[in-house]
């Protein structure tokens, strides 16, 4: 049973519409992930072989995981999730076994998407540190590369890897036939934050005075995850003020915002 530890199989329910902003990125993912699965006959007719993997990079909380799930939903693909950090922490051999087993199950359940979070932990540049742990990473990386190369013949298995540390990734991973596309999932700009807030407040009862544009303007450097936290906090502020409140008003958002500080700075963003 330990061999399946940490792996979840499902077709996610998240849709492209649940993700605010990132219009171009969503389109690229649609074409690269959704199309080859949906239109496999058409691809075959034209003799195009679809790409096997995409590396998503960018700061935490900007919807890398959510994008992968939305791609799986759109393609009605089984979704497998692996974490580099979790593989790395396993007993000797167990991480490789889980990796191989996940690819095997993904081939059986195709069309499938394997989401590989914290890829940098496993796919760190080789030959760096000489500690014992680097050999664990090297073995996992070579297993991953072997499995990626094996996808050439497998139909309908797609790997979406994610990292917050793109500079640490081994170049062998972004060789053609492995991760052919490397996409930056950027933190939202003003327009992006506005769209994210619209998505996040869809189900909320908002007062007439709530001005999402203004909130977007006043939340520079907030990630999507932090905006989600802000909306939740605004609801709690409203209830704290009056437990029988029926709407969340602008001042509740203001109070919530004053209690939160974005983790990202401009320097962090510029470092990507
Ligand atoms: P990490 O690198 O920490 O895994 P991530 O980039 O994978 O982060 P997600 O886990 O996808 O980020 O996002 C965190 C949460 O923030 C999600 O629950 C999602 O609902 C929300 N979120 C982030 N970005 C957006 C967005 N653009 N639109 C709507 N919700 C968002």
TrEMBL record:
Superkingdom field: Eukaryota
Residues covered by the AAA+ ATPase domain: 50-189
Assigned protein family: Belongs to the AAA ATPase family.
Protein's recorded name: AAA+ ATPase domain-containing protein
From-to range in the entire protein, with total length: 275 to 546 of 552
